[in-house]
Amino acid sequence: MARVGIAGFLHESNSFLRQQTSYEAFSQTSLTRGDELVSRWRTALHELGGMLAGAEEEGFEIVPIYATFAVPSGPIEAATYERIAMELADELQRAMPLGGLLLALHGATVAVSYPDADGEMLRRIREVVGPELPVVVTFDLHANISREMAERSTALIGYQTNPHLDQRERGLDAARLMGRILRGEVRPVQALESPPMLMQNSRQHTAAEPASIIFEKLREVTSWPGIVSASIAMGFPHSDVNEMGAHFVAVADGDDELARKAARTLAAFSWELRDRFAGNLPSVESSVAQARRAERTPVVLLDVGDNVGGGSAANSTVLYQELLRQDVRNGLIVLCDPAGVDVCVWAGVRNAVTVTVGDPPVTVTGRVRTLHDGMFEETQVRHGGWSKNDQGITAVIETAEQHTVVLTSRRMAPFSLEQLMSLGIHPERKRALVVKGVIAPRAAYEPVAAEFILVDTPGATTDNPIHLPYRHRRKPLFPMEPEASY
Ligand SMILES: [Zn+2]
Question: What pTM value is reported for the model?
Answer without folding.
Answer: 0.94
